[in-house]
Every structure is written in C-alpha cells, then in structure tokens.
Design goal:
Largest sheet: 2 strands, antiparallel
Mean pLDDT: 88
Shape: elongated
Radius of gyration: 14 Å
Number of domains: 2
Structural class: mainly alpha
Order of helices and strands: EEHHHH
Number of helices: 4
Helix content: 40-55%
Strand content: under 5%
Low-confidence stretches: none
Length: 86
C-alpha cells in the first residue's frame, strides 16, 4: 500500500480505490517515492523540523514557507498538516 498522490488515501500501487487514479503518478512526476500510508508520525517530524528551521531564521511559520522548505506545494503542506493533526 502507498499513499495516493491525488487524494491522500491508502491505495494499491496500481490503482486507488478511492479516486480510481494511478496513485504513484504525482509522486513519480515530482521525482519522489510514494510514501507508505502510515506516515503521520514521519509527517509530523518533517513539519516540526521545517518549522524549527524557519523560526530559527527569524520568520513566521506559514504553509508557503513550509512548502518552500520541504520542496512541495502549499496544498501538500496543508494536507500533511491535516493528516498530522489526526
């Protein structure tokens, strides 16, 4: 199982049962490995580390700054924040 790059739900590597798309395609297009669906702890750690780096630079932590730091889109950061909160 991997995390669908389209809807964020756990999916088989060949087709998402939720959105019926190729779940790996968005990850592959960004040159990344599709993450396992149980990555909430890893996401929390990545967001916290990026947030600490941003604060250490004297800046306010925003989704846009986190996205820049993590080299993902602000939309992905917001989705990760929702996932990490649950």
């Amino acid at each position: 199982m991997i995390e669908c790059g389209w809807c964020g739900q756990p999916a088989r590597p060949d087709r998402c049962g939720n959105c019926h798309r190729d779940p790996a395609l968005p990850w592959v297009q960004r040159g990344q490995e599709p993450p396992a669906p149980d990555t909430a702890d890893a996401v929390r750690r990545r967001l916290a580390a990026a947030g600490s780096d941003i604060e250490a630079q004297g800046n306010r932590v925003t989704a846009e700054r986190l996205a820049e730091q993590l080299d993902v889109s602000p939309r992905t950061v917001r989705r990760w924040q929702q996932m990490a909160a649950s």
